Amino acid sequence: MKTLITGGTVVNASGPFDADVLIKGESIAGLASPGSETALSWKDGADRVLDATGQYVIPGAIDAHTHMEMPFGGTFSADTFETGTRAAAFGGTTTIIDFAIQSKGKSLRSGLDDWFAKAEGNCATDYAFHMIVSDVNKQSLDEMDLLVDEGIASFKLFMAYPGVFYSTDGEILQAMQRASLNGATIMMHAENGIAIDVLVAQALERGESDPRFHGATRPSILEGEATHRAIQLAQVAGSPLYIVHLSAREALEQVVGARDRGQNVFAETCPQYLFLSEADLAREGFEGAKFVCSPPLRDSSHQIDLWRGLRTDDLSVVSTDHCPFCFKEQKELGVGNFSKIPNGMPGVEHRLDLIFQGVEMGEISLARWVDVTSTTPARMFGLFPRKGLIAPGCDADLVLYDPNFTHTFSSATHHMDVDYSAYEGMKVKGKATTILSRGQILVENDNYVGTPGAGKFLKRGLNGLLR
Ligand code: URP
Ligand code: ZN
Ligand code: ZN
Fold first, then answer.
1. How far apart are CA 444 and CA 246, in angstroms?
2. What is the 3-state secondary structure (H, E, C) of the chain?
3. Whose CA is nearest to atom 3 of ligand 1?
4. Would you say 439 and 27 are in contact if contact means Cβ atoms under 8 Å apart?
5. How many other CB atoms are there within 10 angstroms of residue 242's CB atom?
6. Gap from CA of 157 to ligand 2 centroid (Å)
7. Probe residue for ligand 1, chosen from 158, 245, 247, 418 as the CB with the greatest number of ligand atoms within 8 Å
8. What separation in Å is there between the alpha carbon of 280 and the centre of ligand 3?
9. Ligand 1 atom 5 nearest Cα
10. Which atom of ligand 1 is nearest to the CA of 292?
11. Which CATH superfamily is domain 60-380 in?
12. What CA–CA distances, in Å, run from 242 to 284, 293, 368, 384?
């Protein structure tokens, strides 16, 4: 099967240029100047021609941080791999990297097997896994080596959530030492969970039970402190470190310092920290529960620093941390006690559009938009150049993106299996119109036309950004 995409502006992380793109089977076969002899001959031989006039043609977006069907706070995140990857596809994301979880007392292997069972045969997009290590011991440290060989070359540890996912500094150091030997990247949830738990108990004792106290008890200084500590531990161990869901300027300052010193420290932020704020957490009644995630939404002044960090590559990636819980019955578990609200927000469908608003607002360039949503995640997590690039030989994961299409986010029209939108009523410019995964169209004319379960597991290599 030969597909030709004509008339579009190809945007790679290196910049935009006009080109027609030929796809053969699952791969990109070539790029040619529009109207050139080569392009005209391709048109004659094509089985299908997609007209991208007036649109950008970008590499399929990669969401390096999702939680489908994740157990949390006595319930499960609402999207399955089937519904979540379909929603991702609608938004132009053609690869997700989800977090498999090691339960306390169990092996990494059994956690990973659970995640394979959930994902296999159900995904619309390609998928890969990171591994959450919640029980650092001799066996799990040994298993890390085996997982790296299987393409799971990144491990998330938590400085938050004592009694659930939390690891002590000593345990973190040991996991980092192992990563320094086997080439893996350590991903860190950097919040001082021990101090936060004290603040939470004190707030509840004072009768402060509304969702806004979720934010008040997780101050940004405790994210900065944990980020600093993680960086120091990684330096002692000599391992690469990737700070997940960075929300605050205090944490960013630590990342900037480490990067300036030449340390292999990277960080991602998420759209919710760029577009939402603690004012949303403080909405009337229990509405704020829709915005409970950790780290919490900050005061909006942090957004200026985060956009600056994205511009200057102090922040390398934008991921969603998609972890949706329905307002009814799930978020409502925390009525009268904010600490019982399941942590997480929906977003896998909207990342490309939201970050494109950064281009519209003049915060980042077009090329940087592609870089932070596709190319750098591919390089960071061992998927490059198969993913994250439009060039001969790469997977034909391609998005036709109409920069002038305006639309409004709403739970009435989104495809995520959750009963609210964190961005309800927000009008945005730009939309993914046609989405291809390895040459197959997944979405066109607002319809999902993919084959359910066609998404493949991706065995990842090591971090390609180490210096
Ligand atoms: O609130 C969040 N972020 N929920 C998902 C779990 C995590 O820490 O990433
Ligand atoms: Zn986390
Ligand atoms: Zn997460």
1. 34
2. CEEEEECCEEEECCEEEECEEEEECCEEEEEECCCCHHHHHHHHHCCEEEECCCCEEEECEEEEEECCCCEECCEECCCCHHHHHHHHHHCCEEEEEEEEECCCCCCHHHHHHHHHHHHCCCCCCEEEEEEECCCCCHHHHHHHHHHHHCCCCEEEEECCCCCCCECCHHHHHHHHHHHHHHCCEEEEECCCHHHHHHHHHHHHHCCCCCCHHHHHCCCHHHHHHHHHHHHHHHHHHCCCEEECCCCCHHHHHHHHHHHHCCCCEEEEECHHHHHCCHHHHCCCCCHHHHHCCCCCCCCCHHHHHHHHHHHCCCCCEECCCECCCCCCCCHHHHCCCHHHCCCCECCCCCHHHHHHHHHHCCCCCHHHHHHHHHHHHHHHCCCCCCCCCCCCCCECCEEEEEEEEEEECCCCCCCCCCCCCCCCCCEEEEEEEEEEECCEEEEECCEECCCCCCCCECCCCCCCCCC
3. 294
4. yes
5. 28
6. 8
7. 245
8. 20
9. 344
10. 1
11. Metal-dependent hydrolases (3.20.20.140)
12. 35, 19, 19, 17
245 CA from centroid of ligand 1 (Å): 8
Where are the domains positioned within the chain?
2-58+389-448, 60-380
Phi and psi at residue 167, to the nearest 5°: -120, 145
Residue with tokens 């011991």: 137
Topology of domain 2-58+389-448 in CATH is Urease, subunit C; domain 1 (2.30.40)
The residues lining ligand 1, judged by C-beta closer than 6 Å to any ligand atom, are 67, 189, 245, 293-294, 321, 323, 343-344
Per-10-residue mean pLDDT, the chain, length 467? 98 98 98 97 97 98 98 96 98 99 97 98 98 98 98 98 97 98 98 98 98 98 99 98 98 98 98 98 97 98 98 98 98 98 98 98 98 99 98 99 98 98 98 98 97 96 97
For residue 269, which of 289, 254, 249 has the smallest C-alpha distance? 249
Expressed in angstroms and rounded, the spacing between residue 156 Cα and the centre of ligand 2 is 8
* Whole-number pLDDT of residue 280: 98
* In contact, 185 and 242? CB cutoff 8 Å: yes
Verify cis geometry, omega within 30 degrees of 0, for the bond prior to 392.
Answer: no
Q: pTM of whole model > 0.90?
A: yes
Atom of ligand 1 nearest to the CA of 244: 9
Strand partners, 32: 20
